[in-house]
């Protein structure tokens, strides 16, 4: 149960909080700001509204793929270049790795992130 709790918490943080914050920031009117959000807003302003939405929605794929790589490495099923060895992940003293990536990707697919 701790593994599901962990995945749910990470998923919530990434999609219900972070993605919503990115979406909100990137869909604001351009103001000429030159920070990373401002530059992204300026670039998106060159697109029509449907194209802007497509780009912002693609961020969900990027977020899911990034988390998948990390969770796969923790699960011991994905080995980024140069990373050797086994990780041990626990929550409240109970080992939780092994299915984190699968559980996360299942939630992402159920949400339609890869559609």
Structural description of this entry:
This protein is mainly α. The protein has one domain. It is 63% helix and 3% strand. The chain has helices at 2-26, 36-44, 49-75, 100-110; strands at residues 90-91, 94-95. Helix 1 packs antiparallel against helix 3 and helix 3 (49-75) runs antiparallel to helix 4. The longest helix is centred in the middle third of the chain and has 27 residues, at 49-75. The mean pLDDT is 93.
- Cα separation of the termini: 28 Å
Helical proportion? 55-70%
Report the uncertain regions: none
Strand order of the largest sheet: 1-2
Which oligomeric form is depicted? single chain
**What is the chain-wise order of helices and strands?**
HHHEEH
Our count of domains comes out at 1
Radius of gyration (CA) equals: 17 Å
In total, how many beta strands? 2
As a percent range, the share of strand residues is under 5%
Largest sheet: 2 strands, antiparallel
Please outline the helices and strands.
Blueprint: H1 2-26, H2 36-44, H3 49-75, E1 90-91, E2 94-95, H4 100-110
In short:
This protein is 63% helix and 3% strand. By secondary structure, it is mainly alpha-helical.
Key words describing this protein structure:
single chain, 115 residues, mainly alpha, 3% strand
